[in-house]
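#lab-general

N.A. 3:47 PM
ok so I finally got the sequence cleaned up, no stray characters, all 182 residues accounted for. can someone with queue access submit it? mine expired

B.Y. 3:52 PM
send it over

N.A. 3:53 PM
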Amino acid sequence: MKTKIFFCIFGVLAITLFFFCFGTVQSKADSKGPMITNSFAIEKGYYGTVWKIYIEAEAPNGDMSKIVSTVDQPGWGTYYPDTIQIKPQNQNHLKGYIQWNTFSKNAAHIRDFTPITLRVSIVDKAGNESNVVVFPFQFVSRSAPKYELPSPFNKDDVRLGYVNIDLYDPFSASPEVPEPPD
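B.Y. 4:20 PM
back already:
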């Protein structure tokens, strides 16, 4: 009797596990989200640099919705995310740059060698997020060296939108500056 109960319980667990595993694999294969396939950005520039962050992405379902950017700054923390809506003609495949004018209304100056990290991802209409691409950047008083755009960005120069994040200088913060988000 105990053997019969053991095999019944074992059988039910095995069947449940089988359907759970194959059901999960099948649903992941059917719901592919967007993917950033190529990226490029310079890593140094002076305060006020017009920073172009190049990305190429695709979505098998053609439903890319927005580009999400966040910035981390030592001494300040992580800024609130910024989003750029993706135009309908680019929802299946996009290639171009997002532009960030690094001059900020909240900081008269950002000190030399201040590093920041920009994280970029793409979200589709269902809320699936792509891989996150990380772009380090450091403010320097001298201009960045000249560069040539790598392939595939060297053919077209299409602006996808603007990053609207205003940096703070954590060393000269005034009392009216809000606390950084947690």
